[in-house]
Design brief:
Layout: E1 13-15, E2 21-23, E3 28-34, H1 52-61, E4 81-83, E5 93-95, H2 97-100, E6 102-110, E7 121-122, E8 126-128, H3 135-142, E9 146-150, E10 155-159, E11 165-166, E12 185-191, E13 197-203
Antiparallel strand pairs: 1-5, 2-8, 3-4, 3-6, 6-7, 9-10, 10-11, 12-13
Pfam family, one: WAK_assoc
Domain Wall-associated receptor kinase C-terminal: 123-163
Keywords: Glycoprotein
């Protein structure tokens, strides 16, 4: 995924609706290096945010990394499209860059200092959907663990604070804990150029 410091032509992205994840409302998606004939600029589609999106585009196009997708720094923002939802762009949650005639995309889930794109947080923010939050997950969280996945088959795993991945809960692993601990989950998602995603979930103490 492109960031202010490093941009490159990227592949398409998709998130199957059957997956245990869904997109959060924090994501702002930006299509970069789009052809002026791209369907995202079709007035009848009205996908691009030309209000606040203009500031996002001008911020990204001011980055030195923009040359990585073949555009000069401070290129005209008319080749940039900003929107806050993948709904309507394709089936499910997806970006088909060849179809949209864009060379790259990025997603911003937190702006921080809105005027400085070097301080923006790039990535796609995901959350577990309701179908994932099973009794096993509730039992895991009750024991102080974090719900996650492990192994090549992506089977359920209860991630304990001592680093053990249990199949059910973290009872029996509490001997390494001290004091009261209430897990708060931060999930960061790294999207590769191939569109594959890897979840990194960690507790805040």
């Amino acid at each position: 995924m492109s960031t202010c410091s490093s941009m490159q032509n990227s592949g398409s992205f998709s998130l199957d609706r059957a997956s245990p994840f869904t997109l959060t409302g924090a994501n702002i998606f930006v299509l970069l290096g789009c052809s002026t004939t791209s369907p995202v600029f079709d007035p009848s589609e009205d996908l691009c945010d030309t209000g606040s999106g203009t500031r996002v585009c001008s911020g990204l196009y001011s980055c030195k990394g923009i040359t990585g997708i073949g555009l000069p720094q401070n290129a005209p923002t008319s080749t940039c499209c900003v929107y806050d939802s993948l709904m309507g762009v394709g089936s499910g949650y997806s970006l088909d860059l060849p179809k949209l005639q864009c060379s790259s995309y990025t997603s911003i889930y937190e702006f921080g200092d809105e005027g400085d794109p070097m301080k923006w947080k790039f990535g796609i923010s995901l959350q577990y959907n309701d179908s994932y939050y099973t009794p096993a997950c509730k039992d895991c969280e009750t024991s102080g663990g974090l719900c996650g996945f492990a192994g090549l088959d992506g089977s359920f795993s209860c991630i304990c604070r001592d680093g053990v991945n249990a199949t059910t809960n973290c009872f029996g692993h509490a001997y390494t804990w001290s004091g009261a601990w209430e897990p708060k989950i931060q999930t960061k998602t790294i999207i590769g150029g191939s569109g594959h995603y890897h979840m990194v979930t960690a507790p805040f103490l």
